[in-house]
Specification:
heterodimer; A: 115 residues; 6-stranded mixed beta sheet; 46% strand; B: 113 residues; mainly beta; 4-stranded antiparallel beta sheet; 12 strands
Chain lengths: 115, 113
């Protein structure tokens, strides 16, 4: 597809379980971002990948959150031992070239609900 | 510290009215970029505009216009002759050079027919 895709679109899980969220960026985009958007709130930066450089993890809220990007393409955001406050829409974006000033193309998001 | 403030949480206008969405930012960087994104009810964010800190020229794109004023650290967005399809949440964002995006809390715009 031409755009950023994310899967699953919806995920319901029980407190304490681990979840994995997937992001397929636009082909050729070297930068990839994860954000979290809680209900009615703005976007909270989580992590940023740029090419083969070490990711910027400064936005991850706790050590229960981790992300990886394999082969400079697909990324997986993992949340361990989920808590109810993790419930949110998780958005992925990709960007061409280097530099965070480039336009970001967003995926549709994964809505995570922790019961 | 970087910060973006969008003081208007929600705005309602009647179709064909003009509306301005405010954005005030804080940064100590001299080089930075400002953005506006639209999030329609479908949920997917759509890029509207990017401005760098050295270009204070206002920009007009159809019914949309942006007013960037460094003196007041503002980057306001005006929709002229609003339409129902403009109903969305609008986010202003700041990207200081070499750092990541800071988004404002968003302004929910409702355009009533």
């Amino acid at each position: 597809g031409a755009g950023v895709s994310q899967s699953p679109s919806n995920k319901v899980t029980e407190k304490g379980k681990d979840v994995e969220l997937r992001c397929d960026p636009i082909s050729g985009h070297t930068a990839l971002y994860w954000y979290r958007q809680s209900l009615g709130q703005g976007l909270e930066f989580l992590i940023y990948f740029q090419g083969n450089s070490a990711p910027d993890k400064s936005g991850l809220p706790s050590d229960r959150f981790s992300a990886e990007r394999t082969g400079g393409s697909v990324s997986t955001l993992t949340i361990q031992r989920t808590q109810q406050e993790d419930s949110a829409v998780y958005l992925c974006a990709s960007s061409p070239g280097q530099g965070v000033w480039n336009e970001q193309f967003f995926g549709p998001g994964t809505r995570l609900t922790v019961l | 510290a970087q910060k973006v403030t969008q003081a208007q949480t929600e705005i309602s206008v009647v179709e064909k009215e003009d509306v301005t969405l405010d954005c005030v930012y804080e940064t100590r960087d001299t080089t930075y970029y400002l953005f506006w994104y639209k999030q329609p009810p479908s949920g997917e964010l759509v890029f509207l505009i990017r401005r760098n800190s050295f270009d204070e020229q206002n920009e007009i794109s159809g019914r949309y216009s942006w007013n960037f004023q460094k003196s007041t650290s503002s980057f306001n967005f005006t929709i002229t002759a609003s339409q129902v399809v403009d109903s969305a949440v609008y986010f202003c964002a700041l990207s200081p050079y070499g750092q990541n995006f800071v988004f404002g809390p968003g302004t929910r715009l409702s355009v009533l027919p």
